[in-house]
Amino acid sequence: MVIDMGYWTKVIRKILLLVLSIAVILLGFKLAVYYIPFLIGFIISLMIEPIIKRVQSKTKLNRKTGASIVLLFIFAIILGLVVWCIITVVTESSNLLQNLNVYIERIYNQIQSYVSSLQMSRVKIPSQVIRNI
Hints:
Blueprint: H1 5-59, H2 63-98, H3 100-117, H4 127-132
Helix pairs in contact: 1-2
């Protein structure tokens, strides 16, 4: 019996490549958990850099003061949006809860109208199921 070593080396290489790929992907996911906050911070710093430079050039302030002003302004905008979203969600959910009975009754009536419009004699459904409906 002749053993083809070229075939087995290819198989072993592919298996090792698969195992190595899976290990790299798992390691990438584990490291992503730690690096995502830094990546988000880097992207935010890239986005606000032109604003800081413009504030520096227009007001003749140093970089520290200009960056502080821009960051306070951006945090105020973000905080305002979060508060607005929370207020909107609370208001809409309270309106939904107040009108929940009306919505449930409308759904029930709609289902009843669909069921009553069905011609049960044309559909071959057992009589027990029809009685339950």
